[in-house]
Amino acid sequence: MFNRNILHMGRWIRFLIVSATALCTFVLISRMLPIDISVARQTSPHNAIIFVADGLRPSSVTPNRTPTFYSVANQGVGFVNSHSLFPTFTTANASAIATGHYLGDTGDFSNTIYVGFPTPNAGGSVTPFVENDAVLADLDNNFNGNYLNEETLLSVARAAGYSTAAVGKVGPVLIQDVKQGNRNAGTVPPPDTIVIDDTTGKAGAVPLNDDITAALNNAGLPLVSPTRSNGVPSTDADQSGSNGFSGSNTTPGTKAANITQQQYFTDTVTKAILPLFKDRTKPFTIVYWSRDPDGTQHNQGDSLNSLVPGINGPTAQAAVKNADNNLAQIIATLKSLGLDKTTDIFVTADHGFETISKQSDTSFAKTLSYPGVNTGFLPVGFVAIDLAKGLGLPLYDPDQNNQLVTPGSGTIPFPRSGDGLIGTDPLNPSVVIAANGGSDLVYLPGAGDQSGLAKQVVNLLLQQDYVSGLFVDDSLGSIPGTLPISSINLKGSALTPTPAIAVNFRSFPAPDPNCENPLACGVEVADTGLQQGQGMHGSFSRANTYNFMAAIGPDFKQGLIDRAPVSNVDVAITIAEIQGLKPPIPTENGTLIGRVIDEALKGKSSRVSFTSKTLESEPADNGLKTVLKFQKVGKTKYFDVAGFPGRSIGL
């Protein structure tokens, strides 16, 4: 019987590493541990590749535009009831994909979180953006060497002697084996897991070991990863060909997918890593994280200040095709190397996507004028500005050396990244806002009972038309209009500070007469420096929680449409099951875990029982109430949508 707590390795990983030095010792251990001996004795457990197409929506997958994704879903298993975790951000879902735990255990609550200490590699900010290898190392250093407080699939596979690699987008790639990036001691040897991302070969990067260095050299590939420029010189007046160009409120963003960088990442997998792993004749586990379509959908310049076509324009479509091409190249290489019959491929997206709205009829922040912001539009940091105004307290910017923000004027008219410190002393703030996009996090770091302040903040947020649903830390008590964060698995064993309030923003269908599916053309109010008409995620709409998921390979059924709920929290546990990684570890670091997707596996029943449920808060004085819709398989929860009725797509 598979123990779902496979990723809590702790003392057993150290035990296995020492024991693996001799065959006789391994045999002794195999007799001592209640594992599946038939699996442990296999000479060749199947390989696994997790391919993450960042921000890929199911509606984007068609037989013509994305023949590879379409083929995997139709020839293998297509998960048509799939889910991202809320908050629907990249590093948050990366932590779930890596560990099999919900966010209340991993503590990676969003791309930007409050960490409670000045982060050295984020300019001393207490609200760092964690899609950064150096910042991840800072977090590890501060939180007992592993800020996630969980073992990851790659760390488990590595400890079992498998070859492991994580390639692609900086941040979520390192999270897959996060302790491998903590190399500040200087004497630590290069990691056993191959890590190749945006920073490879540059200052502060995770170093390459000798094996992969030689393999890259033999393949004629550089040891330095390219940028997202697509070869466009930074001095050119027209930056539309650079995928990293986001534009401004008067200049459209990129008109090009992330072709050059992702071709390099794909080549490293197909021309260096896979041949190297084949030569080792050991099983392998690889995570490939495609920045597209996410990065292009964020920055696309097809829809400046307009909600249509939004993220459905030609540039975003090219990004979807780019990711499909990357997967096609990997599959073709598996076949050419004779690895296709022994390799399972699990494709997932970390979240869905929506078009950005910067409009509100209630916000104080939008009544002011700001440089680079259209008149009447919300500036980045509007939540921080509105709360500071409502509380009658000063606002400081943690990302600009805690300098005072003077909304609409002065040197700092708005928080640069949207994050804010509210209170009379920025070193001891009363309220901290971590701005993220389609949802924000509010922290109350003061000592003592903060329930009164929490009610004040909630009452201010309930007055704003851009809010759609509020979740409050259980320790602060029940507040009308809100649900507890435990209801969405944000309350667990996390080492990082737990947010006091998770703020979901309003979402609605775009006014596009050609779009019949609201999940394909959703719009969300977003706390971001990007422009109206560009792309964002993070909300609790079904357009953001509905991500593309599919799987194919020797362990997965063929031609199965799986209608049971699944999510990113199930990925690592399912892959661990099929790869025979089954140490009997108790749940030492949290119980918020996913499940093995048994119904998708060969030899298992396709029947699975699940239920749909609705949870409603007590209404606030103005009648608003937070409603949560979710599904359950056994004890595992799958969150569909939440918010105030009429303000969230799918509710």
**In terms of structural class, how would the helical and strand content be classed?**
alpha/beta
CATH topology category name of one domain:
Alkaline Phosphatase, subunit A
Low-confidence stretches: 1-42
What is the name of the CATH architecture of one domain? 3-Layer(aba) Sandwich
Give the number of helices. Answer: 17
Give helix % range: 10-25%
Characterise the protein shown here:
With 651 residues, the protein is an alpha/beta fold. It has a domain at 10-355 and 544-600: Alkaline Phosphatase, subunit A (3-Layer(aba) Sandwich). Strands 5-4-6-1-7-20-2-21 form an 8-stranded mixed sheet, sandwiched between helices. An 8-stranded mixed sheet has the order 10-9-11-12-13-16-14-15, covered by helices on one side. A hairpin with an 8-residue loop joins strand 11 (420-422) and strand 12 (431-434). Helix 10 (210-218) packs across helix 11. The model is unreliable at 1-42 (pLDDT under 50).
